[in-house]
Amino acid sequence: MKSVRILRPGVVRLTEEEIPVPKQGEALIRMRRVGICGTDHNIFRGEFSERVNFPLRPGHEWSGEIAALGENAAGYSVGDCVTGEAMVACGKCPDCIRGDKYACRFRRSVGTVNAWDGAMCEYFVFPVRDLLPLGGNTDLDAAAMVEPASNALMGVEGAGIRVGSTVAVMGTGPIGLAAVAIARIYGAATVISVGRSEYKLEIARGLGATHTVNTKNEDAAERILEITGGLGVDASLEISGAETLFRAAIKSTRKQGSIVLIGFHDHPITLNLNDLIFPLFTIKGAGGGWGGYAPKVLRLMDRGVLNLDVLITQRCTLDEAPGWIENLKTDSARTVKVMICG
Ligand SMILES: [Zn+2]
Ligand SMILES: [Zn+2]
Predict the structure, then answer these.
(1) Which residue segments constitute the domains of the chain, with CATH numbers given?
(2) Do 340 and 36 meet the contact criterion of CB atoms below 8 Å apart?
(3) Residue 331: enclosing H or E segment and its boundaries?
(4) Of 92, 174, 189, 313, which shows the fewest CB atoms inside 10 Å?
(5) Is the pLDDT score of 26 beyond 90?
(6) C-alpha of residue 302 to centroid of ligand 1, in Å
(7) Which ligand ends up closest to the CA of 109?
């Protein structure tokens, strides 16, 4: 079968591998959709290299069909459509036995660091414990968007967004745009989407952004303060990974507001910590998207409350995937989510 492997930083190839056999408690999944994530591109470029075991098979945003089941894999049948958590728990440690797999210290992320082999191939195995069944109204495209949407939901909940909140979402990638939609579902009255691609800001407006700020020609902090009558927003979600936008969040979040960090920064930032004391900010990290967010996202999608189809801007085949991983950022103004279809 075909399998995409990042052999080492700078080298990604389509390779030929044996179809794996599901062990006890595992399912064999036939890949139907895999989203290409910025993280896949960053691993290709050599980021996180000290924590990545090469050759790495990426693919943590996926949906597929069960092709076979190993022993003790109850609860699923061949032909079922599923997606999965972005992590695989060990199933044996005290936390797993207690039923809190999200606390598992031995968990492996899927397709990234310390990885369980990802989904960029024709067939892969996955523990049934970490599978999520699709409801009758959730299609394969939507299910492959559950992982980025789970990160967005984790950020929105972490920021304490509720009815009437004012929110700034820095960044217009898949997680940022999903966060715009989810902040509205949570009842935010003002959702300001901040980015530098007019094409993506238009998508943000379609998903419920009440205001957009294009940093190519506007100062983010200035505009956010203007929109909120000088007060600043209740919560800022920093999903861009841009230092300038993190600094803008510090300037344009209201006193006692919260700043949630989701986007990876490619360099350390020097801060004057004194700037954080009197604003009484809560600064929080939200990453991984695991912790029960994926099942919630699936319910929102299945009931028609959350629809992120508009984020799929390109489609490709498995054969074309290595090229996309290499060049993901080339036309970044118009690329939100590239979806591999199997
Ligand atoms: Zn991702
Ligand atoms: Zn465990």
Answers:
(1) 2-145+308-341 (3.90.180.10), 148-285 (3.40.50.720)
(2) yes
(3) none
(4) 92
(5) yes
(6) 21
(7) 1
